[in-house]
């Protein structure tokens, strides 16, 4: 349980994002830990250090989006104004539109008639706009596209990706596999069988299954799914290949994962799961960014001494007593956060860590993003 | 706060605001007076088990705590696949076919791929638990509850999650799933349900809360309360806060008091304390502004303090006390 915080290796984010061999940085972590802000700050820092950066955000807070000049969800990377380009770098930003990304995949890989059939199918429309894993899948799809464009056009040399606020931080790793295994799985072959032909394929087991589906979901949905599947048939192999391609990119040396957390037991537990999962998949982990850390107070009074002072002064000087109580409370928080960090470090002694002090306000403009970047890359 | 006399309490909030902890405290508060309460989670995170410090919960209702006056808190981690098989068994008696569905990947399809279905299954189970008859037995032969608390998905996904009708209409225009979705919507829109928002007094969570409340009103789901969590108690009197913010605190007097209390005020001590006070004053000012933003929603608000040491079981009961301070509103 005990690990010395001074033994925790430091994560040098400045070196990471300016390393010319690193081309993709993936920021992941549970919801509410400042993942999107961290992604944006890293991207800004890299751009001002001379790299040509594109940052892919999933669902930025309104003001952060405004700070980067993102006004619409349109899948098109646009230059961010106000970036210091004196080192020759640039920063583009985009917000993910998952339905449009899915449509683009269909349009790019199906014949025009098939594409029209798929895009008009009610089941496809529901799948592409609300399936619980579509956002994760499409974030990875978009990453592949940006990566391909980076290699061909040279427009960017660094892609920073924010990951969706999933149920679990791991969902985006599983989504491509889940979707592709569904799309060429047994159920699909079963649903395709009637459309494709020989009635002998309809064994008793299949009849029971299709019967049950139509009983529960209604025959209309079954027909929609069958039509969708028939039209989508030729794309299945492509989906499997793309999922494999995404995995290869994520595992490559040019990729670095940054796990983001806040000093909170739940967020650190998620971070632990993530670190273990990345190791199991041999994915390249750069380290942990710990946001919103309580800064140790400058005044050199112990919590005990301060609380003793509070008791003595509560009646005679409530102001000074209040100042001491404030100090003691801050020390308690600092101690609690250090204990949490030690626990994490004991379990993962090799994980390099960067800490970011809590800032009084959220990000409103490029200037406050730059302040975070300075703190992160210090 | 006066707890609304609803049977179903849906608790949402942005990640990091303590949604699960507040849902647990609300369940304890509703358990006052010997009532039986069911606390459910639907995201497979085992958050309830971690809050109550017990082993991971199975898909079986089990008692995890005793409420303040002998009430009982039961908990259930709802799993979409298990809910589907249970649903098929309950309504269609699909013994053999149920297993065949599983073998062909249909349960996998229904629970992870088919849009909206997963949510219908998850809320469907909550619906079933909420609707069990008060005579103690339901069609499923299980005991009934006085109230059900749902630790729901976060604010960003809550309207999609609860608005199952719209989700399902795209895929099933008629049929049993559609009927189930409509029954669920009737319960959610009725006076028997409330959606509560947990937030901290920070800009992003507050904005998401306001957006979420507006969205609930648009869909027609009754909003219960905004629960402001992790509020830092102001530690200075208003005049002192203003002085700290303006940098006009009388340093000499503070130094004299410190010396009197046996604390050397030299070196960085005095300046450090004043710096901390200024940061605290900024924080309080920001929180006050965010609270005013929240008041615009016109929804009852209740505040829970920040527990500096983190939330343990004792802290949970304290939170429950605060939530239930005024008892349950029986409409009288």
Description:
- The complex is a heterodimer of chains A (378) and B (332).
- Chain A has 378 residues and is of the alpha/beta class.
- Helices cover 56% and strands 12% of the residues of chain A.
- Chain A has helices spanning 13-18, 35-48, 62-67, 98-109, 112-119, 122-130, 134-153, 171-183, 186-196, 204-217, 219-232, 236-251, 265-280, 303-313, 318-347, 366-377, and strands at 24-28, 52-57, 78-79, 90-95, 158-162, 255-261, 285-293, 353-357.
- In chain A, helix 7 (134-153) packs across helix 12.
- With 332 residues, chain B is of the alpha/beta class.
- Chain B is built from 14 helices and ten strands.
- In chain B, a hairpin with a 5-residue loop joins strand 4 (62-66) and strand 5.
- In chain B, helix 3 packs across helix 5, helix 3 packs across helix 6 and helix 10 packs parallel to helix 13.
- Chain B is elongated and about 85 Å long.
- Residues 327-332 of chain B have low confidence and may be disordered.
- The interface between A and B is large, with 79 and 81 residues.
Chain-wise SSE layout:
The complex is a heterodimer of chains A (378) and B (332).
Chain A: H1 13-18, E1 24-28, H2 35-48, E2 52-57, H3 62-67, E3 78-79, E4 90-95, H4 98-109, H5 112-119, H6 122-130, H7 134-153, E5 158-162, H8 171-183, H9 186-196, H10 204-217, H11 219-232, H12 236-251, E6 255-261, H13 265-280, E7 285-293, H14 303-313, H15 318-347, E8 353-357, H16 366-377
Parallel strand pairs in A: 1-5, 1-6, 2-4, 2-5, 6-7, 7-8
Antiparallel strand pairs in A: 3-4
Helix pairs in contact in A: 2-16, 4-5, 4-7, 5-11, 7-8, 7-12, 8-12, 9-11, 10-11, 13-15, 14-15
Chain B: E1 3-4, E2 8-13, H1 19-30, E3 36-41, H2 47-52, E4 62-66, E5 72-77, H3 80-92, H4 95-103, H5 106-113, H6 117-131, E6 147-151, H7 155-162, H8 164-169, H9 176-189, E7 193-199, H10 203-219, E8 223-231, H11 238-246, H12 251-260, H13 269-295, E9 301-305, H14 313-323, E10 328-329
């Amino acid at each position: 349980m005990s690990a010395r915080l001074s033994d925790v290796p430091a994560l040098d984010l400045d070196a990471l994002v300016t390393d010319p061999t690193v081309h993709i940085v993936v920021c992941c972590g549970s919801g509410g830990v400042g993942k999107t802000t961290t992604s944006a700050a890293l991207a800004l820092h890299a751009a001002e250090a001379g790299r040509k950066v594109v940052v892919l955000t999933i669902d930025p807070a309104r003001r952060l989006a405004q700070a980067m000049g993102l006004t619409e969800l349109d899948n098109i990377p646009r230059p961010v104004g106000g970036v210091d380009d004196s080192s020759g770098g640039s920063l583009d930003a985009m917000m993910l539109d998952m339905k449009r990304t899915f449509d683009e995949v269909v349009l790019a890989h199906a014949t025009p008639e098939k594409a029209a059939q798929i895009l008009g199918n009610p089941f496809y429309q529901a799948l592409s706009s609300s399936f619980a894993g579509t956002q994760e899948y499409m974030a990875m799809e978009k990453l592949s596209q940006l990566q391909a464009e980076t290699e061909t056009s040279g427009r960017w040399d660094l892609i920073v990706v924010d990951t969706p606020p999933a149920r679990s931080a791991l969902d985006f790793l599983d989504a491509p596999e889940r979707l592709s295994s569904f799309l060429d799985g047994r159920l699909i072959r079963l649903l395709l069988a009637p459309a494709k032909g020989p009635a002998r394929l309809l064994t008793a087991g299949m009849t029971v299954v299709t019967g049950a589906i139509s009983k529960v979901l209604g025959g209309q949905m079954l027909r929609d799914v069958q039509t969708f599947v028939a039209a989508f048939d030729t794309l299945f192999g492509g989906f499997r290949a793309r999922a494999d391609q995404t995995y290869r990119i994520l595992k490559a040396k040019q990729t670095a994962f940054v796990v983001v957390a806040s000093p909170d037991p739940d967020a650190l537990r998620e971070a632990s799961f993530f670190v273990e999962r990345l190791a199991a998949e041999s994915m390249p982990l750069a380290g942990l960014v710990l946001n919103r850390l309580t800064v140790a107070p400058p005044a050199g009074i112990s919590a005990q001494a301060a609380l003793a002072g509070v008791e003595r002064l509560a009646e005679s000087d409530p102001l000074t007593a209040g100042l001491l109580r404030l100090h003691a409370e801050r020390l308690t928080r600092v101690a609690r956060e250090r204990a949490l960090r030690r626990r994490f470090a004991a379990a993962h002694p090799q994980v390099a860590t960067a800490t970011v002090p809590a800032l009084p306000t959220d990000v409103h403009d490029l200037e406050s993003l730059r302040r975070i970047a300075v703190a992160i890359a210090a | 706060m006066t707890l609304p006399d609803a049977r179903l309490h849906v608790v949402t909030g942005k990640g990091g605001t303590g949604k699960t902890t507040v849902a647990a405290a609300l369940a304890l508060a509703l358990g006052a007076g010997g009532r039986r309460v069911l606390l459910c989670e639907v995201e497979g995170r085992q958050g309830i088990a971690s809050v109550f410090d017990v082993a991971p919960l199975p898909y079986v209702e089990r008692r995890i705590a005793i409420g303040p006056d002998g009430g009982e808190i039961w908990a259930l981690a709802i799993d979409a696949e298990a809910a589907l098989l249970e649903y098929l068994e309950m309504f269609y008696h699909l013994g053999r076919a149920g297993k065949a569905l599983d073998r062909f990947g249909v349960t996998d399809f229904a629970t992870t791929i088919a849009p909206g279905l997963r949510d219908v299954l998850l809320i469907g189970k909550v619906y079933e638990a909420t609707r069990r008859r008060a005579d103690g037995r339901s069609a499923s032969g299980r005991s009934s509850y006085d109230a059900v608390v749902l630790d729901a998905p976060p604010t960003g996904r809550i309207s999609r999650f609860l608005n199952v009708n719209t989700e399902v209409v795209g895929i099933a225009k008629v049929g049993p799933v559609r009927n189930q979705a409509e029954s669920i919507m009737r319960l959610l829109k009725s006076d028997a349900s409330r959606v509560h928002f947990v937030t901290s007094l920070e800009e992003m969570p507050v904005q998401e809360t306001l957006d979420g409340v507006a969205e609930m009103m648009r869909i027609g789901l009754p909003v219960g309360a905004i629960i402001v969590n992790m509020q830092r108690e102001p530690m200075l009197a208003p005049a002192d806060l203003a002085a700290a913010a303006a940098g006009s605190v009388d340093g000499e007097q503070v130094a004299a008091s410190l010396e009197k209390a046996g604390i050397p005020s030299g070196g960085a001590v005095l300046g450090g304390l004043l710096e901390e006070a200024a940061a605290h004053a900024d924080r309080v000012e920001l929180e006050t502004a965010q609270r005013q933003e929240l008041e615009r929603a016109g929804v009852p608000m209740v505040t829970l303090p920040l527990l500096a040491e983190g939330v343990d079981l004792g802290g949970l009961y304290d939170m429950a006390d605060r939530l239930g301070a005024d008892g349950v509103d029986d409409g009288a």
